[in-house]
Specification:
Blueprint (H helix, E strand, L loop, with lengths): L2 H14 L7 E5 L17 E6 L8 E2 L13 E7 L8 H11 E12 L18 H11 L5 E8 L8 E7 L12 H4 L3 E6 L17 H16 L3
Length: 230
């Protein structure tokens, strides 16, 4: 897991789940490869890691990537980091997450908005500022009353990745339960979207570029992540 994926995951937990206890949290794509969101999740909750392969941090192995082995409306929170880009039909994954979430449930998605072609085992997609609204609208067309609470593009740090972040509530009737946003607590984002607003917060057309001297270090980090070695 790259540095900003861990950073924004930690900010999600501290913003939306501060001091939460007794929740059932499911992590889709949970294998610990140079880190996992499990280590920054709030304690005293039931954290369930699901993935398509056996590995560190994986509690449940999926036989079908688009079917979660949980009952309807049984999960409090679903997180997925650096996974949707590897899903052929991520919109099906999105609907399946909505199915198992409680009406008050939260869905956190982190997926790249840039980056090199990296197959794990495939690499299909990148996500941009309006992707969160598109996913919300897809969920609505599919019969769910989900709402996008916020989305934005992250700012890269030591590695090459710009992260797309989207936070959704399963039923928009419960959006008032969540009064703060990650964007309230950090300046490290651009092209933010907020619930019921067409404004683009900190609009920026171009993402950061890399200096030539960074490239060797960047590709070394990518190689480490792919082979799963520290």
């Amino acid at each position: 897991m790259h540095d900003t994926a861990m950073m924004y995951g930690k900010q999600f937990f501290s913003t939306y789940l501060k001091d939460a206890t007794g929740l059932k949290i499911v992590d889709i794509g949970a294998q610990d490869v140079n880190g996992s969101l499990r280590i920054v999740a709030p304690m005293n909750n039931d954290y369930i890691g699901v993935d398509f392969v056996e590995g560190k941090g994986v509690d449940v192995i999926l036989t079908d990537p688009y079917v979660l082995p949980f009952e309807d409306s049984s999960i409090d929170v679903i997180v997925s980091s650096s996974c949707y880009e590897h899903s052929e039909f991520f919109w099906l994954s999105f609907n399946e997450a909505l199915r198992v979430l409680k009406p008050t449930g939260l869905l956190y998605i982190n997926a790249p908005s840039n980056g090199v072609y990296h197959r794990y085992p495939i690499d299909c997609w990148r996500f941009y500022p309006d992707s969160g609204v598109a996913l919300q609208n897809w969920g609505n067309r599919s019969g769910y009353e989900c709402a996008l609470l916020e989305s934005f593009t992250g700012v890269r740090k030591n590695e090459m990745w710009h992260d797309f972040i989207g936070v959704f509530v399963k039923n928009k009737k419960h959006s008032s339960r969540f009064t703060t946003r990650i964007q309230d607590n950090t300046k490290e984002f651009m092209n933010g979207r907020l619930l019921n607003s067409e404004e683009i917060v900190k609009h920026k057309m171009h993402q950061q570029t890399h200096k030539v001297r960074d490239l060797k270090r960047i590709f070394k980090e990518i190689f480490k992540e792919l082979i799963g070695k520290p």
